[in-house]
Design brief:
504 residues; 11-stranded mixed beta sheet; 8-stranded mixed beta sheet; 17 helices; 19 strands; 36% helix; 16% strand
């Protein structure tokens, strides 16, 4: 059993793959062995989390997740610890191994109760063995009631496989459950150190995306000893911490390439000055290691120097050598970015598209066709960095559809446009058509502030200009972007400007 830490490069398996793994493992192991191993792992972790618990409550659902909970109760009883077990569903209808676990638990005298414990302290622990990976709808009835009791108590909570109500594939938290959400729909009591999740057999993508990162709390993993005999298919992977190397002594500024930033529409054009977005991207590119950074502002009276960062080189847009630069396009570009896209698609080898460049793409199918055609040119690399709303515009769907299946949405965009996609959000997804998607484990809610996306675009540009492939550049930049936020002093505000400057 391991405790997951950001930076661990581990494979992720969808529910369908996990089911295949279960069947394969069951064919290798003796009957009922897999559930027994799961119960042992749950019991051991529960004791480690709450070693002084006077009450251990195991809420068991009607399926195999509940069977794991019953096995944990058996293990605890054999060690002299009496857990309180509550059962959801008809005991007579428990399938296969779960039914056998119930019969053996009753035969061994495991305490079965009709209701949860009335008193729980902060030294106690509740084990959520209710629905696991099979949940596709909001919990209801007694299951929802028991979840409400768990959340309201001060006790630690250990979820078996995934927290009940969380989609194991997508990290979507099924709504309509008063036990998990507030009246306004927000998470209620989930972002707490007392929450733990023990993933069994495989790690599930939903634990690292969307609401999963909040709901799961501390994530633990036990492959139940099957990895030596059977290796599950990799459906996705966790973004590993990149290996940072010192620059050689004989380097010069040309060794790390040139980034050109195009954006920053003037206030005169639409009454919305957006120069700051382009400057943030440029500062991130420079602080992120680019040898030189040129700035081309789509402004009627562009600035000529940034006194806070005089190393930035301002140029007329017509004077920038686009064919020699890694170009970051769209940050604050407004409507003026659109005529530039065909030129950049043709002339630029390494291209990062963000913000208004993506909006222009969404409204012009001909531009999407041009972008997709770049994929046939072996010398071209393209990274797009949509947030969920921009992704929805590009795919012609509702933003909720994006959030309900972020892996699929990112992969679809990569297939359609022939590029590497960075779908931003909780558990940013990096996808490329020819490889499994990557989920980034770093970052937190402090990045939910204006300008941080521009910083990420500039940082990706710096990684591209330094010679990384588009996919590796995206993975490294996204990891570092989130890591800076994770290491930020808790009481210090995080602004996009501060984030950009911290990239060095």
């Amino acid at each position: 059993m391991i405790r997951y830490k950001p930076g661990d490069a581990l494979p992720l398996s969808l529910v369908s793959t996990t089911r295949e793994t279960e069947r394969a493992a069951s064919g290798i192991l003796p009957s009922h062995e897999l559930m027994k191993r799961a119960g042992l792992a749950v019991a051991q972790l529960a004791r480690a989390i709450s070693p002084h618990a006077q009450t251990i409550w195991i809420a068991c659902g009607p399926g195999n997740n509940g069977g794991d909970g019953l096995e944990a109760a058996r293990v605890l009883r054999r060690s002299g610890i009496e857990a309180v077990v509550t059962l959801a569903g008809d005991p007579a209808k428990r399938p296969g191994d779960a039914g056998q676990s119930l019969c053996e638990a009753m035969r061994e005298g495991v305490r079965i109760s009709d209701s949860p414990p009335t008193v729980l302290t902060d030294e106690d622990i509740c084990i959520d063995a209710l629905l696991g990976i099979g949940a596709k709808h909001a919990p209801k009835g007694v299951i929802a009631d028991w979840l409400r009791v768990m959340k309201a108590s001060p006790a630690a909570i250990l979820a078996v496989d995934v927290p009940t109500g969380l989609d194991a594939d997508t990290g979507y938290l099924h709504q309509g459950q008063s036990s998990l959400t507030t009246a306004s729909g927000g998470l209620h009591g989930l972002v707490q150190s007392r929450h733990h999740t023990l993933a069994l057999l495989t790690l599930k993508p939903g634990l690292f995306m969307g609401c999963g990162r909040d709901a799961a709390g501390t994530i633990w993993f036990d492959d139940l000893g099957i990895s030596d005999a059977y290796r599950p298919r990799v459906d996705a992977r966790l973004n590993p911490e990149p290996a940072y190397r010192d620059r050689p002594h004989h380097s010069h500024k040309g060794s790390f390439g040139m980034v050109a930033v195009l954006g920053g529409e003037s206030i005169q054009h639409r009454g919305q000055g957006m120069t700051g977005a382009a400057l943030l991207a440029a500062r991130a590119a420079l602080c992120g290691g680019a040898g030189r950074v040129l700035v081309g502002l789509l402004d009627d009276a562009p600035m000529t120097v940034d006194t806070n960062l005089p190393e930035l080189m301002f140029r007329a847009t017509t004077a920038i050598p686009w064919g020699e630069s890694t170009t970051v396009c769209g940050c604050g570009g407004g409507e003026r970015i659109r005529p530039w896209l065909p030129i950049l698609f043709r002339d630029v080898q390494r291209l990062v598209l963000d913000a208004d460049a993506l909006n222009a793409l969404a409204h012009d199918p001909s531009l999407q066709t041009m972008l997709a055609q770049r994929a046939s040119r072996r010398d071209c690399a393209t990274v797009i960095t949509p947030h969920p709303l921009e992704a929805a515009r590009l795919l012609g769907c509702d933003v909720n559809e994006i959030q309900r299946d972020r892996l699929r949405a990112a992969w679809q965009l990569g297939e359609r446009l022939g590029c590497t996609v960075v779908l931003k959000g909780s558990g940013t997804v990096i996808a490329k058509p020819d490889r499994p998607p990557t989920i980034n484990p770093t970052g937190n809610g402090r990045l939910a502030t204006a300008g941080t996306g521009d910083v990420l675009a500039g940082l990706i540009g710096a990684r591209l200009s330094g010679g990384l492939s588009e996919y590796d550049a995206a993975c490294q930049a996204v990891y570092q972007h989130g890591m800076v936020a994770d290491r930020w002093a808790r009481l210090e505000p995080l602004t996009a400007m501060a984030l950009a400057q911290a990239m060095s």
